[in-house]
Structures are given as structure tokens and as C-alpha cells.
């Protein structure tokens, strides 16, 4: 970072505007591509639920435009996931002016790892959390109670969990980056581990449905990722002079 040259505040706003426009274009392009496969994407998205539901049960829609708008939201969700590399790259480029020249060389690996962790978090939610969560919720069905989940409700539930797990899995990248800048240290992370665990459980309670299973299935991976963050901070963190 060049101490002699300081970018004015208006330039930061202009750069932010440029980054947001680029992100919007990327999401729009991803949405356009995903819309042609909206039915297939929704079918894949509902597969964990359909495997648990009884034979012959299907999702329903209770309003005339519900299916149409649900498919639009499916395409938007898929577009965001497709545009994730661009979104993460633009975010790190916005942060780059505050880095030294040698640190800017790490942007490409950081973007790659950020994308990998985001997709890994979404996959964890889809393959691990969804089956257990749906089995728990459908377990309340009985002879007199029949589950009739709607397209809108399912998409809201699924998209919230997928994006939440994708974002929280960025924890090692963010903490390692902060350690690289010298904002946090390994000693600080170890000392405040118990407070971090409390924040993880509180955050899991907010981001997940109000049931213990999905909350634990978010909190425990965060605890593991926190330990990974400490290792990353130890290896790549700013060294004491």
C-alpha cells in the first residue's frame, strides 16, 4: 500500500459503484442462463425432500402466479451461485487498494479458495443438512396430518440454508485474511475461542430454522472451520518483526 498516495472518498464510491454494476451484470448473465434450465434446477433442488416424502406426494402451489415466480427465484438463486466467482473477485478487488503489492498477488488464490469454500458450504447444506432436516420436519406427519409443502415455502427454506452455509464456510478465508493484515493474531483467536463458539451457536439459531438439528449442523462445522482458521492464521498471518 502506498502511503504517499491516498484515494479520495469519492473515488472509493465510484469504484464501489463500478464493482456493484459488474456484480449485477454477472448475476444477470447467470440468471439468463439458469432460466432456460429452471425446471431441471428446481427438480434437483427438491430431490432431497422428494426422496423422503411418501410415494405419490408432490409439491403444490396455492396461488396462480406462485409457480411462475418460484421459477424466477430459482433462476436467480442459480444465477448468484454461477456468478459467485465474479462476485468474490469483485469483492477482493475492492479490498485490494488497502494491500501491499506482494499481498495483491494472492488475490487469485484467495478468489479460488473463496469460491471453493462457498460451493463446499452449499454442498454441505444440500447433501448433509437437507436430508436430516427434512426427515425431522416430516416426522411430525401422522394418519391425520399430511404434509403439503408448497413450491414457494420450500424454495425460501432451501435458498436461505444454501446461501447461509455458503457464506459461513467463508470463515477460514476471512479470518486468515484478517490475520494476514495483522488485524487479528493466533493468540487473539485462541484466547477468544469460547466467545466465538457462543457467537456460532447464536448465529446458527438465527440463520437456520428453529430446530436443534439444523442449528447444531451449522454450529459444529463452524467450530471446525474456526480451528482451520487458526491454522491458516498461523501459516499465513502477519509475522511479528
Written account of the structure:
The chain is mainly α and 241 residues long. It is 75% helix and 0% strand. It contains eleven helices and no strands. The chain has helices at residues 9-35, 38-52, 66-82, 84-95, 101-104, 107-138, 151-168, 171-180, 186-191, 193-207, 212-236. α6 packs antiparallel against α11 and α8 packs parallel to α11. The longest helix is centred in the middle third of the chain and has 32 residues, at 107-138. It is flat and about 65 Å long. The two termini are 18 Å apart.
How would you summarize what this structure contains?
This protein is mainly alpha-helical. It is built from eleven helices and no strands.
What is the averaged pLDDT score?
87
Give me the secondary-structure category. mainly alpha
Q: Would you report the number of β strands?
A: 0
Poorly predicted spans: 1-5
Distance between the termini: 18 Å
**Rg result:** 21 Å
> Which assembly state applies to the chains in this document?
single chain
Strand content: under 5%
Helix content: over 70%
Number of helices: 11
What does the overall shape look like?
A: flat
Major pleated sheet: none
Question: What's the helix-strand series?
Answer: HHHHHHHHHHH
Amino acid at each position: 500500500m502506498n502511503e504517499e498516495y491516498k484515494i479520495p472518498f469519492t473515488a472509493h464510491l465510484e469504484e464501489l459503484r463500478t464493482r456493484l454494476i459488474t456484480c449485477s451484470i454477472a448475476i444477470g448473465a447467470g440468471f439468463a442462463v439458469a432460466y432456460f434450465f429452471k425446471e431441471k434446477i428446481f427438480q434437483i433442488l427438491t430431490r432431497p425432500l422428494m426422496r423422503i416424502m411418501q410415494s405419490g406426494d408432490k409439491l403444490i402451489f396455492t396461488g396462480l402466479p406462485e409457480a411462475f415466480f418460484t421459477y424466477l427465484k430459482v433462476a436467480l438463486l442459480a444465477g448468484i451461485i454461477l456468478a459467485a466467482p465474479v462476485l468474490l473477485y469483485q469483492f477482493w478487488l475492492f479490498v485490494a487498494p488497502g494491500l501491499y503489492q506482494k499481498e495483491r498477488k494472492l488475490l487469485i488464490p484467495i478468489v479460488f479458495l473463496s469460491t471453493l469454500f462457498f460451493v463446499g458450504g452449499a454442498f454441505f447444506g444440500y447433501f448433509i443438512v437437507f436430508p436430516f432436516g427434512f426427515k425431522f420436519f416430516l416426522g411430525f406427519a401422522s394418519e391425520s396430518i399430511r404434509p403439503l409443502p408448497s413450491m414457494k415455502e420450500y424454495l425460501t427454506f432451501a435458498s436461505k440454508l444454501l446461501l447461509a452455509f455458503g457464506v459461513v464456510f467463508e470463515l477460514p478465508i476471512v479470518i486468515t485474511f484478517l490475520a494476514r493484515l495483522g488485524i487479528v493474531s493466533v493468540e487473539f483467536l485462541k484466547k477468544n475461542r469460547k466467545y466465538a463458539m457462543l457467537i456460532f451457536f447464536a448465529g446458527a439459531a438465527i440463520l437456520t430454522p428453529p430446530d436443534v438439528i439444523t442449528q447444531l449442523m451449522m454450529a459444529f462445522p463452524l467450530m471446525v472451520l474456526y480451528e482451520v482458521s487458526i491454522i491458516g492464521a498461523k501459516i499465513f498471518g502477519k509475522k511479528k518483526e
